[in-house]
Amino acid sequence: MAAHATVIEAPKGFVRKYIFSTDHKVIGIQYLFLAMFSVLVGMTLSVFMRLRLAWPAEKWPALQQLFPEGFAGGPMTPEFYLSMMTMHGTIMVFFVLTTAPLSAFGNYFLPIQIGARDMAFPVLNMLSFWVTLAALLVMMAALFATGGAPIAGWTAYAPLSAIGEVAGPGLGLGQTLWVISIAIFCVASLLTSLNFLATTINLRARGMSLMRMPLTVWAWFTTAILALLAFPVLLAGGILLLLDRVGGTSFFIPGGLVVSDQLIPHQGGSPLLWQHLFWFFGHPEVYIAILPGMGITSHILSTFARKPVFAYKAMVGAIFAIGFISYVVWGHHMFMSGMSPFSSMAFSITTLAVGVPSAIKTFNWLATLWGGKIRFTTPMLFALGFVSLFVTGGITGLLLAQPAIDIFLHDTYFVVAHFHLIMGVAAIFGIFAGIYYWFPKMFGRMMREGPGKVHFWLTLVGVYAIFMPMHFLGIAGAPRRYAELTEFQYLKPLESLQLFITVAAFLTIAGQFIFLFNFFVSLFRGKRAGVNPWESTSLEWIIPSPPPHDNFGETEPVVHHGPYEYSPPGEPKDYIMQTEPARQTA
Amino acid sequence: MAFSLGVFFWLMAIITVAIFLGRVWWMPELASVHGAAIDQQLILTLAIAGIAFFLAQLGLGYLIWRYRGRGEGRADYWHENPKMEVGWTVATAVVFLGLAIQGNRIWTQYVLAAPPADALTVEVTGQQFAWNVRYAGPDGRFGRTDPRLIRDADANFLGLDPKDPAGNDDIMTQNIMAVPVNRPVRVLLKTKDVTHSFFVPQFRVKQDAVPGLAITTHFTATKTGEYEIACAELCGMQHYKMRGRLLVMTDAEYQAWLKQRASL
Amino acid sequence: MATTVAPRSGKREDGANGSRNGGDRRGGNGGSGGLPQRPQTHRLGMLLALAGIAMLFIALTSAYVVRQGLGGDWTPMAMPRILLWNTAILLASSFTVEKARRALLARTEGEALRWLLLTLALGVAFLGGQLAAWRTLSARGLFLDTSPHSSFFYVLSGVHGVHVAGGLLALAFPIWSVWSAAPGVASFAGSAGLPAQVRRARWVEAAALYWHFMDGLWIYLLVLLFARS
Questions:
Q1: Has the ipTM of the complex gone over 0.90?
Q2: Phi-psi sector, B177: left (phi>0), alpha (psi -120 to 50), beta
């Protein structure tokens, strides 16, 4: 018999410790910084977009110096606008909204919250990060590719994305690099997700039964299932698209296409096939972005309302229901695509069905607050903001789920408002809540509350000022992905809205520098955090801040309770750690 | 903090609902027959969504203010309430399913209703970045086209085969389309290059033009006047400029317009 | 605060330190009852990876079926005969890798190495045979872009081949680790505490699972591509 009370030696030397580390915590922080870099890039791209939309004819001499082609003749060219839009969407969806909530927080806290010393496959975990970084580097290369960055949107609909430079600038090398980057990213996400699943299934500490796992863990677990089964489909699509571009195949390119009097030498492919493959991945991807935020919100609401999460079992059920239904709703992106109208009906029903568990979650969050004793810390503010944004962004799904209504609203700003609020901003609020909540644990210091609150207010007011008016643009029929609205009579009255949105966006973006400043100053100057500054109950709060290399060290935690034992009557404190000895409430 | 946050959610909800109710920005005025049902369903759903939105934000704001941590004592301690959970789950499911059924009814009424045999057929072919419109002419038949014959420089945008006599009387225009009022129109939608989408906001018509497919859509205009055709699917750098004019005329005007076009 | 912790010891039966059942686990008999059973980490990880890979090929299959259904330009091509030989080689390698796996479980590492080497040789032969099949086709004038059927043949056999090549690396790793007497990396939770022999046995167990899957996958692809022709 092999008895293995092994001590995991902390690696020595800078490179093994911080660069090629197999420690899930270091990897989590690497992902977090990767996401922070990406979000800065994505945000900068949106600044360009907003400039063009607010002042389409304005000349920008300074920018012209920097990007002579993008500002050829003075004003920003429409193709430069489309490049910015494409790269903004791609970088945000893949390298921010997938990376930060799942790979960053999940890596750092999933093992700790279930009482494990590391992930199930630490070496693989390290590999996942480096593969993700490779994908990011290729994507950055696409951004600066000769001929421009791709302009086909983050959805890269074929044949625009498939027939090469003849269809427009950026569709040559830039688009090829884009496809390669996405394919690499798919591989990385697969490795990450299988690691998460194996860790959750196998490495739970004694007493950590499934129904005692924090809702964050449930969210990461479900998200990992989604990622494991969705990313391969995008990978398949990516391989075929790449071959259509460089291998002369015709998977997505039909015959007889003529662009600028040039006959495209392909035949027989199906553009709708790409849409199906893309959205079969794309819709679960939406939930990959938002589910971790839902888990974090549940966790934080309960902590700072000092009250058990309302209906834990229903919350778990709802996460799972959302996850599984998300596999059968992808067609709602294709109501106007010429797909069979009968499929549209079926997808419409499944899509409205996914709203039911989402509504359950909202009710349960409100019921969690009911009768609570709320502490308005910065993480709590962001969690409350998440609930509000989740409602606002989610409720418009009722309209977009119906093909009849989509005849008018599909591909208008209404859709832009909907998905930005729910999968963009709400998810970002989940990320911010997570950062403010876990910063003390990750870095051993508190973030300053004052700047945190200013940041919260600017961001909350700002995002509503940005995205609420987009509903009005949408209801007035403004199509998305237009470089300007000046060409159509019926869109001219809407230009003032675009100007308003741009101003709101710039103010909101300015507000984010308060966060960055707070983050880095707190990293070095923040007040020292104790073991459990928030009086939380889950396992990360029983070990030092920051945790040692092997988390729980020689001893392993034994779990006696669910994670949300707040304010139990007759107890000395208003919370019971998961590891505190059994009481009758279990 | 509690008070201001609560007030913010209330104000945000009230302002939003007020702007929608005041129709400060609203759908372009309806000008087609089938659009009435779509608008009705849109307004019904918007109303339900608006009420849910309003109540949820108001509730959130209220709870934040009401349960701000003040005074002595602890928060309540309860985990669940099966009756309430089942109640709101069933209620939501019923409302959502009802919407799905009603929405699908309107969808099928529009999509599956074939335009009558005497409907006017107009072929619309998208290209980067223009709409090519073709009428069959007196013989009622479209001439054969071949992508190999396409030459924009010679204004043969569709690759019309001169050898096919059916094509001799075809009337072709670019970025301008005329239809008679109150007569069903069938649009035969194609594209030469990438995916476009034929969008006439006032008619509540939108349909992607997918390379390799010919898709039909239809409408009946109810008001004369000039409308705009927009492209609603990203098709390249001048996507935002892909504008067509759609003229709705009386039948007499329409016939005259055709005659004038044919003589060009 | 009152917090209970348990000493981390070899007695623990669940998988948290990867030492469940120690190193003397015989193939297929599951855990030694009592506590809730958890799958072994290395197997679980491999099964999950295979689920992902399966999804990749399901997606490609659906593309295949849709593209074939579009009709028109679908001209089926005849199967190169050499594929049957390749298939036989791959089947044989499944047999040898199974031998290696069992030998490792029985603690006869020398024998296992011989079987592993044979598997490697067969795997390389398979890949060589696949390349030969590609050459046969290109000699017939059938290239990646010739027809949708040839496109799909190259894509499916290519993606499968890349996976087989990855499997070869995985099978080479334990051989290298014996020859170089390297301690090997701690590849899964708790493996750092296991003797090198046990670690290798588990590694090969996972790799064998993968190899069998590639075998079955190839037969599936062959049926998908050529059953009708």
A1: yes
A2: beta
